[in-house]
Each structure stands twice: as structure tokens, then as C-alpha cells.
Design goal:
2 domains, elongated, mainly alpha, plasmid, single chain, Relaxasome subunit MobC
Length: about 100
């Protein structure tokens, strides 16, 4: 016959479960933050590489100056710039398809 647990024993077990769940929650939170930090670092590296490639930037100071100079223009025209790129890409694709069809 199973031994009947006292209320104190039940409370103690529940406290232990709560502590384990808190520790697990902390681990999951830490893992999530680590993943977000790695994603941000990767994104920063990619953006920096693109910036360096197209503007031939060699130093942080140069990057800062160019970024500040472009900030106002890009801020006002970001959607237009992004849309233009899509339109140009679509036109190039259409031209290539037409050229392929003629051959």
C-alpha cells in the first residue's frame, strides 16, 4: 500500500518543481538571447561588408561620415529606392526572356 504523503512533503515537491522550472526558463531565455545576438552580429557583418564593397571604405571614421551624409536622403527615399530596384530587376528579367525567345 502506497505511503500517504503529508501536506509538507507535497509542498516541498512542488517547490522543487518550481525551482526546476525557473532554472529551465532561465536556460531557454539565455539560449534565445544568444541566438538573437548571433543573428544581429551576422547581420552587422553582412551590412558592413556590403557598405565596404560599394563605397570602398577602409575605416570606421569613413563609414560614419558616409552614413551620416546618406542618412537624410535614404530616410526620405527608402521605399522609392527599394521599389526602383525591384522594377529594374523585373525589367532586366523581361528583356532577357524576350532575347531568349527570339533565339
Amino acid at each position: 500500500m502506497p505511503k500517504k504523503r503529508t501536506d509538507e512533503e507535497i509542498l516541498q515537491e512542488l517547490e522543487e518543481k518550481i525551482e526546476k522550472m525557473r532554472a529551465k526558463k532561465q536556460q531557454v531565455g539565455a539560449r534565445k538571447k544568444e541566438k538573437e545576438r548571433k543573428e544581429r552580429t551576422r547581420r552587422l557583418i553582412q551590412v558592413g561588408a556590403i557598405f565596404e564593397k560599394y563605397f570602398e571604405i577602409q575605416s570606421e571614421e569613413e563609414a560614419e561620415k558616409i552614413a551620416k551624409a546618406l542618412q537624410a536622403y535614404v530616410g526620405k527615399n527608402k521605399e522609392k529606392i527599394l521599389h526602383h530596384d525591384v522594377v529594374v530587376t523585373q525589367k532586366k528579367k523581361t528583356i532577357q526572356e524576350a532575347a531568349s525567345a527570339k533565339e
